[in-house]
UniProtKB/TrEMBL annotation:
The lineage of its organism: Archaea, Methanobacteriati, Methanobacteriota, Methanomada group, Methanobacteria. GO terms for molecular function: methyltransferase activity. Gene3D superfamilies: Vaccinia Virus protein VP39. One of its GO terms (biological process) is methylation. CDD domains: AdoMet_MTases. This is Class I SAM-dependent methyltransferase.
Length: 226
């Protein structure tokens, strides 16, 4: 008997079906796409569903390393299973690299290949806020064991694009996070008065350092070939 027949091994809530929780990168995709789209790391092709519902009528190709069993992929989405670095890309106008560069061994190589195969590349990646880390604040993307790197700083995004032969034409940060967001995950088995005291102390300390600062969890950008 396989372990996944007994114990659930995937957190599949919230991403297989977007529902009303539309990611922040969905609207910029509609605005910045140039026509036909290749979505690398497409998962369940929910981006395609969003685009269709909002009037986009181009051809959509999605690449992912596996097909999710029992999931009904949307009609009209051309799904390709395999490693994007080992295949020829279909002819498209825009390539989407959403939440994929942090998972691959060679993000520069993948971006370079995407730039050579399209008019523009749209990227979404987790932002690395090291200033928060220094004070023990954990960001959710740090907990993803499939990541090959720990997110990207702003400087690294520009360097990555430059090395890959690209030029940033648009850059945005979104999904504001507060330094105190991780406090809710503390062990609730502690005595209530201890929890209250720890929360008050932590809020005071974190707000002292970060009250005038804004931090964001995601970076979105548009890149074109130099």
């Amino acid at each position: 008997m396989r372990i996944n027949d007994v114990v659930k091994t995937q957190f599949d809530f919230g991403w297989k079906k977007w529902g009303k929780n539309i990611p922040g990168y969905a609207e910029p995709t509609l605005k910045h796409q140039k026509g036909d789209i290749l979505d690398i790391g497409c998962a369940t092709c929910e981006l395609y569903v969003y685009l269709r519902k909002n009037g986009w009528n181009g051809n959509y190709y999605g690449i992912d390393i596996k097909r999710y069993p029992g999931y009904d992929y949307p009609d009209g989405a051309h799904l390709i299973i395999g490693d994007p670095m080992e295949m020829e890309f279909p002819p498209v106008d825009t390539i989407v690299l959403y939440n994929i560069l942090e998972h691959v061994d060679d993000p520069v190589g993948l971006l370079e290949k995407a730039l050579d195969s399209s008019k523009n590349v749209l990227i979404n990646i987790p932002k690395r806020n090291e200033e928060l880390w220094e004070y023990g604040v954990v960001e959710f993307h740090q907990l993803d064991k499939t990541h090959k790197n720990c997110g990207f700083s702003t400087e690294e995004v520009y360097t990555l694009c430059d090395i890959a032969g690209g030029r940033l034409v648009d850059y945005e940060e979104f999904i504001e996070i507060k330094p105190t967001f991780g406090l809710a995950s503390w062990n609730s088995n502690l005595p209530k008065y201890v929890m209250i005291l720890l929360n008050r102390i932590s809020f005071a300390i974190l707000n002292l350092f970060f009250s005038s600062r804004k931090f964001y969890s995601d970076i979105w950008c548009e890149v074109v070939k130099k």
